[in-house]
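Limitations
The structure tokens in this dataset are predictions for the assembled complex, not deposited experimental models. Users should treat interface geometry with appropriate caution, especially where small molecules or nucleic acid strands are included. An illustrative entry is reproduced here so readers can see what is and is not provided.
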Amino acid sequence: MMIDQPTAAYTLGEMEQKAACCVPSPILQVRDLAVYYGNNAVLADVSLDIHKGCITALIGPSGCGKTSFLSTLNRLTDYHPGVQVRGQILFDGHNLRQESVDTLALRRRIGMIFQRPNPFPLSIRRNLDLPLKEHGVRDPHLRKRKIKQALKDVGLWDEVCDRLDSSALSLSGGQQQRLCIARALVLEPEILLMDEPCSALDPISSRVVEELIMRLRGRYTLVIVTHNLAQARRVANYVGFFWMRERVGKLIEFGQCRQLFEAPTDALTAAYVSGAQG
Amino acid sequence: MIDRVFSTVVFAAAALVVAALVWVLTDVVSEGAARISWAFLVTEPRDAGRAGGIAPVLVSTLWVLVIALAAALPLGLGVAIWLSEFAPKQRGFAAYTGITLDVLAGIPSIVYGLFGNAFFSVYMGLGYSLLAGGLTLACMILPVFIRTCESGLRQVSDDWRQGAWALGMTRAAAVCHVLLPAARPAILAGLVLGIGRATAETAALLFTSGYVDRMPESPLDSGRVLAVHIFDLSMNVTGGDGAAYGSALVLIVLIVLLNGLAQSLVDNWFKRRISQ
Ligand SMILES: Nc1ncnc2c1ncn2[C@@H]1O[C@H](COP(=O)(O)OP(=O)(O)OP(=O)(O)O)[C@@H](O)[C@H]1O
Ligand SMILES: [Mg+2]
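Predicted assembly:
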């Protein structure tokens, strides 16, 4: 059966009630960040704090640089030709934009999930085994245990435990996305960046993934880009609103979820969240 | 009405091609089958090839092929990976490399033969030898092999690249463990093209591996490959037609077998990387 069952068994324990705000303790501090493609600035003057264990949602219209912003946080922009990043990103107090930073180790600590599920065209097991091996986990038993745990964490274990050796591409879209989340979790990251993780999924799968995201709160720090305002409102502790000003993406407002949706300080934000614009 | 005429015309074209192929095949099989026996495969040729078998010719053919593939495969994959993964914009040196490859792919094989003779046989002092022949063939099949693998790699979805990088995998690991397995069909197609071209080559080998029909003792000996054998029998040896047909049939069967072998080897190798 290819439909995701929302009743999947999770091992993360009881779902946490959404805290209006968790204890603010910044794990990422972004200061005056700007991103250029060639000579075009796509993002400028972004400063915000990502708090440990919380879900931070980033909303805003298409093309205002949300994906670019996420890619600077794990330095995936290093691989994009012609991109320039300015500003500071402090991760646990150290600027992760320094040349000397080990980007491979950094990306182990800061995982990323993409809009389109992108499991490798390999077996389900190998999808999780490969990153572990690449990060030097030699012991096959340990890898096996971690793989099982990660699959359980995303509620996929019961669905795939009898076909770990079949292709990951044979899974449904929602299962594939959860496999990608498992693939990131298997490396035990501290932060997960999610770029519109539900927007390529059908409503039921989307719901399952959203529920999973909420279960990950607390154990991981999540930054999630979403076009779905209702979703942002449901899951987020903090919300950042991006908007284009003179063809450059800016962070217009950043604050606690309830405050940003119910009492936005900026008129643009108010218009956007009430659905009048964008 | 127009559609009917059109479909008849294109069907006729297809039928013509198939008919030509069937005609060649039946000719070779009917004339050659009579010559083929175990003895034909394992004995030395006698009387300039009119009698006896083709054992040394088969051995030389395999030597040349193995040398050509051993040289072309790693080199070709390397260039393809560089072009598609590290120079994707095709500017500067990469653009020149691409143009060079396209020109090289169109050069007639006799020119490769002359080059191979001048470079490998004379300049590098390999003389007329299977090694010189194999390396010449490697040069000849490289352009097409590289271009096929390169376009296969380029077609691999960018999502997988991003995914691999985002997991903290090195670019090398992303290529080896994700992109190459994903580009498997293209690599196989390149390999099959290369094997076909290398096994059937005559002109480039006349000047490089030679046409001595003795059993080669090492890759530094000269030797006669099947295609050269067929050429010699049918052009220079009166009464050699029968043996030529027999050799031609062996050549065709050999190519089919090698392609099957290549397919299963590649599939097996990748299967291990895909699931293990
Ligand atoms: N590799 C690239 N080269 C050049 N320009 C780029 C590149 N990637 C993105 N851009 C430009 O940067 C701007 C911001 O893109 P980005 O993908 O970050 O926006 P986004 O907010 O994620 O949009 P969406 O909601 O549609 O995903 C866009 O104008 C886009 O055209
Ligand atoms: Mg985006």
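Some entries come with short summary sentences. For this one: The first strand of chain A starts at residue 26 and ends at 37.
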